[in-house]
Amino acid sequence: MKVSIEEIQNDKEIFVKVTGEIDAYTAPKLREELLPLSEGNHKVITINLKDVSYMDSTGLGIFVGLFKQLNKNEGELRLVELSDRLIRLFELTGLSKIMNISGDGGQ
Predict the structure, then answer these.
(1) How far apart are CA 82 and CA 95, in angstroms?
(2) Is 101 left (phi over 0), alpha (psi -120 to 50) or beta?
(3) CB environment 56-94: b (16+ within 10 A), e (fewer)
(4) Domain parsing of the chain, residue ranges
(5) What span, in angstroms and rounded, lies between the C-alpha atoms of 48 and 74?
(6) How remote is the C-alpha of 95 from its chain's centroid?
(7) How many CA atoms within 13 Å lie on the side-chain side of 1?
(8) How many of the other CB atoms lie within 10 Å of CB of 10?
(9) Structure letter (DSSP) for residue 23
(10) Strand partners for 36
C-alpha cells in the first residue's frame, strides 16, 4: 500500500494531488505532508482525490483535522474529483454537509 502527494503552490492557493490508498499505514505520511500546509499564508487548499483508490476512517480523520485547522485560520479546504465511493463515505459520516467536496473536479 502506497500513497504519493504532489503539491503546487501559488500566492493564494495550494493544489495537492493524492494518489494511492489512504489507510492506517499510509496516513502518517499524508498527515505529515498536509497539516503543515494549513499553517502557512495560503487561505485555500484544493486536494484532488481522483487517483485515490481506497480510503478508510484514518484518512477521514486527516481531512477533518486539516479542515478544522484551516477554519481556525479562516481558510478553506476543497476536496475535488472524488470517486462515487469516496463521496458516499463522506455522505455516510455527515462530513459532506460541512466540507466542500466535489465529484467533478470543479469548484
Answers:
(1) 13
(2) beta
(3) eebbbebbbebbebbeeeebbbbbbbbbeebbebbeeee
(4) 3-101
(5) 21
(6) 12
(7) 15
(8) 9
(9) S
(10) none
C-beta atoms surrounding 28 within 10 Å: 12
Cα 4 to chain centroid, rounded: 13
For 36-68, the three-class secondary structure string (H helix, E strand, C coil) is HHHHCCCCEEEEEEEEEEEECHHHHHHHHHHHH
pTM for the model stands at 0.90
Class of domain 3-101: alpha beta
pLDDT tens, 42-88? 689 999 999 999 999 999 999 999 999 999 888 999 999 999 999 99
Instruction: Work out the end-to-end distance of the chain between its first and last CA atoms, rounded to an integer number of angstroms.
Output: 30
